[in-house]
């Protein structure tokens, strides 16, 4: 099975076998354009060129006969807007998930539907600037000549699907992140589309993640080396697919992803109403299942920020050195607390004006304490988000499955185990992110496995970190203090924002 993930900085391709073992992987990168403040764009053709390159590389590395491929799955950055004309041409650069230009359109949508409560009744999610819906309204308002020419609006991975198969299709998990989808009934929201005057004909057909949406056509076969007629399943949005790749389908397992941002997620056995709209509740990658998720914006980015301040770019093994330094500081970082809101925050507080802060710094604190406080502050933020997610389930949490770049740090895994007081596990394939999850989904879609539950049973635990119970009381007390920091500083953050 082949899995392809269209990320924000690169395309990754992975081939796995029927035992969920990775046979080969490859990647190809591309750039990001920021033409104005808070605008973030990419050329979709760059994605396609990277897909071609990464697929050719992974096929060569795998040394398999391409006829042995049973199916292909797609994963990709969520929420992006790709405008396509009637000839299949890209009309403008894609507007990405982290683009903030449509903030005002979000407010307009909430007003148009009659308030946030009515919006939650329709799509079970609040309207965020990253979502596709507000981008479509921005396009209609600010670039009407593009809007009028647009035949169909696609998300990033679904543009690649179109280039592979010629079909306009998406899946329920990626559609959930558009802000136009009835998550409960797993279909486009006719009510919301009517209010926003968006024709459903301008949106792709929607499939379950495991359903075949089309087949690799002759043109794409010639460009990529894939066999003509290879089935392509729905796949999913990267934040959902990556957690599927670690086994997060059933309730009872909490997932953490420490990348640039931090994600806390859990599979839901049944639909749950997103009270207050604080979380993102999407359709999961298997029929009859859902996915609850909260995002904290400054996770791995906080460590990256500190690294840039403390270390020369030419230093070897910087992150290894940082981990060694942090390990020299005791649990609790000598009572130093870090608030990781360096990009503002999304969850549990939707506040773009929030800021980061070190609390309790004294003369006794040194570099190891600063680094460890950042690691601990990020985990405190993950725990804060998790409290909202756990309220969605009646099933007690038994373990944490962690992935992302931060999961490679043994110290960061231990801090997670100690702060949550739960065992923290990594499983095979997690380092390959959405590409691995997409390949698993492809295996279910091609009936290599009976269902997604059999597929995730193939996953093997590669590391397990047990909590140190001696640190429980210390971390509980520090966490209580951590939760007091943002409410105490919010008014200061608001005032500081007016000075810049």
UniProtKB/TrEMBL annotation:
Swiss-Prot/TrEMBL site (Important for activity) positions: 5
Name of the top EC class for this enzyme: transferase
Superkingdom classification of source: Bacteria
Keywords assigned: ATP-binding, Carbohydrate metabolism, Kinase, Nucleotide-binding, Transferase, Xylose metabolism
Ranges of residues in domain Carbohydrate kinase FGGY N-terminal: 1-242
Transmembrane portions of the chain: none
Start and end residues of each Carbohydrate kinase FGGY C-terminal domain: 257-444
EC numbers: 2.7.1.17
GO molecular function: ATP binding; D-xylulokinase activity
Function according to Swiss-Prot or TrEMBL: Catalyzes the phosphorylation of D-xylulose to D-xylulose 5-phosphate.
Family membership: Belongs to the FGGY kinase family.
Identification of the protein by name: Xylulose kinase
Protein's organism: Mahella australiensis (strain DSM 15567 / CIP 107919 / 50-1 BON)
Gene designation: xylB
